Amino acid sequence: MKPSPRIASIRGFVLIVLAVTGLIAACQTAPPMLAPTESRLVQPASTAAEPVVTPTQASKPTLTAAPLPTVPLVLESSMVEYSIPLHIQHKTQDVLVLMFELDQPIQGRVYWWPDDESYQTANSMAFDGFQTRHLLSLQGLAPGHTYQITVGLPGEDGIDRIPTFMGEFWGPLEITTLSEAIFPLTIGVFGDSGFGETLTRDLAAQLSSYAPDFIIHTGDLVYRADEQGGPEAAYQLKWYQTLSSLLEKTVIYPVVGNHEYDPDAILKGIPYYFSAFPMLDELQGGWQEAPAGAERQWYALEFGSLQMVFLNTQQLYGGSAREQQDVWLKSRLADPGFSATIVVFHVPPFTSGLHNLDGQAVISRWVSEFEASNVVLVLSGHDHNYERLERNGITYLVSGGGSSVLYPLQQRREESLRFDLKSHFVYLEVSAEELQIKVFDVEGTLFDSETIALHP
C-alpha cells in the first residue's frame, strides 16, 4: 500500500470504531510484505495467557457518518472520567489506533485536527454509548504530520467537553505520524518502572523532550498492585498517570515482564496487562474478532528491511505456548525480506546483575537462533541497572533502570562492556545504514553511546 501523500487538511478520513466490554482482542494472519517505505504491526495466530479464560464477546464494528466540518467542542473538563485515558496503541505513516475507557457508558465523539489549526475546525466521529471501552482507528492521515486528538462528551447545554483522568485534565493528545520515508527513526527504551515514583515521572518527561517516534518498554509495567486494591487502580496510578508525559505524545510498545503474572496483577483470571494491551489486526479492512483466549503475547513491527520482534520470556518458564512462540520466532528470523532484526523481551540472557542466572532458558532456546540470523541488537530489562554486552557480533542491552530501585553488580561477565547502577533511558537513532545508541540518566546526562552497523 502506497502511503498517503502529504496533505494540509484531513478531509476524507475514515474512522472505524470498535467498543467492547471487558477484554478486547483482534487478530488475523500476517499479510504479504510491504514496500520498504511502509511500516506495520504483525501478530501471530492467537495464543492463550496463563490461565486461559474466555473473554467477553466484542461488539460488531460501528460505522458512522461522514465527518462534520465544525463541532460543538470546548476544551473544558467533563463530569465524566476516564478509567483508562485516551492513548495510542499503534501508529504508522497514515494510521493511529486509539484506546480509552470511560467510567460510565455514554455516547460521545472523537475529535482530531492538525496541530497548526484550531480545534474549532476539527473533524469528528461519533461512538455509541452501549460500552465503556473503545478502540478506534483513524486512517488516511498525512505522514509526518502532528495531530491533536481528544474525546468530547455532551453536557446538558449540548456542548462537548473532555473527560478527566484521576481528577486532572488529560490531553488533547499531540501525536505525530511516522514520516513517509520512515528513516531516520528515533526510539526511546526503558523498563522496570512500575512503582509509580516521582523519579519515573521525571525520567519519562526527560525522554519525552527528545520527541521519539515511539517507546519500547522492556517489561514489569506495574509492581505491587495490591497497594491500590487491584490492577485496574494500579495501572491508573503507576502506568497511565506516571507516564502521562509520554502517553500524551507517542505510543509505547511493551513486552510482558514476570511481574505482569503476579497474583495481584491478575483480573478475571488473566494478567491485566492483556486487557491494557489487546490484540490488534493488520489495520487493513477494519477489525476482526479474535478467538476466545487470544492475547498479545508476542508481535513484530516492520520498517522496510528492519524488523523489531517482541517476545514473552514468561512462556519459557512453563507457559503452554512456548513451542508456538519458538516456531513463530524462527519464521520471523528466517524471513529474507529483512536484513536486520532487533529483538525485545524481559529476562536478559546475559547480565552481570542480581538476576545473572535467570536467563538460562533464553540462552538455551533463543541465543543460537539469534547468532544464526541477522539479529543486531537485543533489548531486555529485569535487572534494575544498565549494561551493554557484546557476544558473537550481537549487542545486548539491559535497560531496567526505570525507577530508583536498582540492583548492584554481582559478577562481571566477560561479554560486559559497560555496567552502570543508574536510573536511565536509552535513545536509539536508526538510519538505513546504522543504529546509534545513546543512554541518559534522569538529569539528561549522556553516560554511554555506541554505533551498530546494520547488515546490508
Topology (SSEs and partners):
Elements: E1 14-20, E2 39-42, E3 62-63, E4 73-91, E5 95-102, E6 108-114, E7 123-127, E8 133-139, E9 146-154, E10 160-165, E11 168-169, E12 173-176, E13 185-190, H1 198-208, E14 214-217, H2 231-241, H3 244-247, E15 252-254, E16 266-267, E17 270-271, H4 273-276, E18 299-303, E19 306-310, H5 322-333, E20 340-344, H6 360-371, E21 375-380, E22 386-391, E23 394-399, E24 416-420, E25 424-430, E26 434-441, E27 446-453
Parallel strand pairs: 4-10, 13-14, 14-15, 19-20, 20-21, 21-23
Antiparallel strand pairs: 1-3, 1-8, 2-18, 4-5, 5-8, 6-7, 6-9, 9-10, 9-12, 10-11, 13-25, 16-17, 18-19, 22-23, 22-24, 25-26, 26-27
Question: Overview of this structure, please?
Answer:
With 456 residues, this protein is mainly β. The protein has 2 domains: 14-22 and 57-176, Immunoglobulin-like; 185-453, Purple Acid Phosphatase, chain A, domain 2. The chain contains 6 helices and 27 strands. The protein has helices spanning 198-208, 231-241, 244-247, 273-276, 322-333, 360-371; strands at 14-20, 39-42, 62-63, 73-91, 95-102, 108-114, 123-127, 133-139, 146-154, 160-165, 168-169, 173-176, 185-190, 214-217, 252-254, 266-267, 270-271, 299-303, 306-310, 340-344, 375-380, 386-391, 394-399, 416-420, 424-430, 434-441, 446-453. Strands 1, 3, 4, 5, 6, 7, 8, 9, 10, 11 and 12 form an 11-stranded mixed β-sheet that branches. Strands 2-18-19-20-21-23-22-24 form an 8-stranded mixed β-sheet, covered by helices on one side. The protein has a 6-stranded mixed β-sheet with strand order 15-14-13-25-26-27, with no helix packed on it. Strand 10 (160-165) and strand 11 (168-169) form a beta hairpin.
